TrEMBL record:
Keyword Transferase annotated: no
Organism: Ideonella oryzae
UniProt-listed Gene3D superfamilies: SGNH hydrolase
Coiled coil: none
Protein name: SGNH/GDSL hydrolase family protein
Signal peptide: 1-24
Keywords of this entry: Hydrolase, Signal
Pfam families on file: Lipase_GDSL
GO molecular function, one term: hydrolase activity
Length: 344
């Protein structure tokens, strides 16, 4: 004898299935779905995602301690294709078989370079708005569409800028209100990006108060930076039009907190030496919304650390930037899991 399950029970079972995912909501139907496989990856954001290749060598750098080519005994040649030192978007691109021109070890033709880097060092939320606008207006490539996967990770520099500017934002309430407003602006930008048909992975800001630089400012200052991070994330989450079918919200804040608390890594010292770190103390935002201070951070390599243990055990490469070997591998895996096991 055949019978149908009550509709209420079916809805409850569907909700349980959604709850085990990494996203705040679950999209699509409970039956068949077509697996989303992007033909392009477009990366917006700041230096936590950026690759730089000023010489157009196809063997560029990132800001999370670069690997070196072991065939060069002078330790002068970066090896961007060393997967153990990928930043998180390199890991995501690699999973889908997509290649950045900034890291193109096989010299693929430009028509086959379908991972497009727009992220830059020091970007704030308003700079990412410009990145998106510039990308859409660039006739050198197609505008965003339904076959594109977009990543957005920004907000860390916003927290730093707001924290340091006590003239424009003279009280804690002012600073918190501004952080929330910037998170809301980012949420509205993400909604606009989804209007193009593209799918978006957007990462939350981790607790900036957990960074070595924040802790050096004192416990109360670190707490303030954490509260500003939370305010930014709150503004972002409450503004996203997130039905689970277009937007994947990456809980990078939780992942970094777990690495800090339970990862058994060195969390107070920087792995890179003083000549290869960012100048955070003197960084200010320019008119385009980019904080300076990159200094020689992009040239930090496994050779510019005190020892191999530092390269693999230190969570931070400098006062605020995460180590590719440890953190970016974790964050990249989280992004891949979100994009595949809880599909758009």
């Amino acid at each position: 004898m055949k019978f149908a399950l009550p509709a209420r029970l079916l809805r409850a079972l569907a909700a349980v299935g959604c709850s085990v995912g990494l996203l705040a909501s679950c999209g699509g139907g409970t039956s068949h779905y077509d697996k989303f496989v992007p033909s392009r990856l477009i990366v917006f954001g700041d230096e936590y995602s950026a690759l730089v290749d000023p010489n157009n060598s196809g063997n560029g750098d990132h800001y999370a301690m670069n690997a070196l080519n072991s065939l060069d005994t002078t330790n002068a040649t970066v090896l961007c294709s060393d997967s153990s030192r990928y930043n998180w978007v390199q890991r995501l691109a690699s999973y889908y078989g997509l290649t950045f021109k900034e890291c193109n070890p096989n010299n693929l033709a430009s028509s086959r370079l379908n991972a497009l880097m727009q992220a830059r060092y020091g970007a704030t939320e308003r700079a990412v708005e410009a990145q998106f606008s510039d990308f859409q207006g660039d006739i050198g490539h197609d505008a965003l569409g339904s076959n594109d996967l977009v990543t957005v990770w920004v907000g860390m520099n916003d927290v730093i800028e707001i924290y340091k500017d006590s003239v424009t934002y003279s009280s804690t309430a002012d600073k918190t209100s501004e952080a929330t407003a910037r998170g809301e602006k980012l949420g509205r930008l993400i909604n606009t990006i989804t209007d193009t048909g593209a799918r978006v992975l957007v990462a939350q800001v981790f607790e900036m108060g957990a960074t070595p630089w924040a802790k050096q400012q004192g416990s109360s200052e670190a707490k303030l930076m954490t509260s500003l991070s939370d305010a930014f994330n709150q503004g972002l989450r409450t503004t996203l039009l997130n039905d689970g079918s277009k937007i994947g919200l990456l809980t990078f804040n939780d992942s970094v907190a777990n690495l800090v608390q339970y990862g058994n890594y060195e969390t107070t010292e920087a792995a890179c030496d003083d000549a290869h770190v960012a100048d955070i103390d003197n960084a200010t935002a320019d008119s385009d919304g980019y904080l300076g201070g990159a200094a020689s951070l992009s040239t930090c390599t496994t050779a510019t650390v005190p020892n191999d243990n530092a390269a693999k055990k230190d969570l931070w490469v400098d006062g605020i930037h995460l180590n590719a070997y440890i953190a970016h591998s974790t964050l990249g895996s989280l992004a891949i899991t979100r994009a595949t096991s809880n599909p758009f």
